[in-house]
Amino acid sequence: HGAHGFLLSQFLSPFVNRRQDRYGGDIASRATFALEIVDRLKDEVVDHDFILGYRMGRNEPGLKEGTEIARILENAGIELLHVSSGIGNEKRVQVPGDFPYHWIVYLGTEVKKQVNIPVIAVCRIRTPREADWLVGNAVDLVAVGRGQLVDPDWARKAEAGEKPDSCKD
């Protein structure tokens, strides 16, 4: 898990990571710890039918570096990116006025434009219609956590064309 201020997120962030060794400094050096873990995981799952994914904060510390981190992870062998927020300033995220979803969803749609691996978008995706639009137009998958907590049959109902219960947030 490399988002939301957890350990991998902290190593990637120049706000937190002020190390003077090989794990600190420029973006490539701050990514060293995450890449070592990715390499080790690849060694462990090489003979298994296993997708190696990474949850990242694209606004960490800003959008440009977040996009660079996504590319670094893709080049390291990550096969799926689950894009959320990180240690950063959400006020820096300029979402187009006609984008109808949360700014964190926007982060995922922008990462998808920059990588060639599947991308999951997350945050306040409340209805099957919203999920379908995003998967059909902007990302490969969506994560619907709160909806699943409110209605454990959310996915089944969505697939069947029924209206699942939704989270009011």
From TrEMBL:
UniProt keyword Nucleotidyltransferase, yes or no? no
Q: Which UniProt keywords apply?
A: Flavoprotein, FMN, Iron, Iron-sulfur, Metal-binding, Oxidoreductase
Per UniProt, what is one GO molecular function of this protein? Answer: oxidoreductase activity
Q: According to its UniProt record, which cofactors does this protein need?
A: [4Fe-4S] cluster; FMN
UniProt xrefs under InterPro entries: Aldolase_TIM, NADH:flavin_oxidoreductase, OxRdtase_FMN_N
Domain NADH:flavin oxidoreductase/NADH oxidase N-terminal positions: 1-161
- Could you tell me what this protein is called? NADH:flavin oxidoreductase/NADH oxidase N-terminal domain-containing protein
**Originating organism:** marine sediment metagenome
